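Please, structure for the following, as tokens.
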Amino acid sequence: MPTVNIGIIALGIIALGIIAVFFVVYLKKRNAILVLVINVSKENIIQILRIKGQVESENCEELYAATQYLWMGFESDFFKNFKSWFDKKELPEEQQSEYDVYLVKIPLKHKIPGFESSNANSLVRLDAFRQLPDNSREGELVVSHRLANEAYANNNLYRR
């Protein structure tokens, strides 16, 4: 009788190990997304991003300087917190102001540590921006239409 119980326990341990491996693989495959908030006065970098569809090394510092707020997380959180802003239409001219913003969605191959902390120092954050060309998924960058400044009232964002 004791051998049956040991066998069942061993099978349970093996099953838990297999589940743990699948869970780790699943977490690594989750798609990370970076969202940047950029004021309309930085139209130059917005146009570059729209034309190229990705961040290139020569634009990293300009993008860093233009970013007011940012957020990094997974697709499921992006859909809950930001997706609706990317679906909005362009602000009518009579409603536009100098405080309007663009949101930039940058799908990442994996999370970049310099974007994870809301209190990262400027050198760590700049280094994270310099990693974008190698760590963003090519051709998947999206720039929203011009949005009212309420778009960054989202409490999940933090200052660059």
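The chain has a mean pLDDT of 84. Helices lie at 2-29, 43-52, 60-66, 75-81, 83-87, 113-116, 122-130, 132-135.
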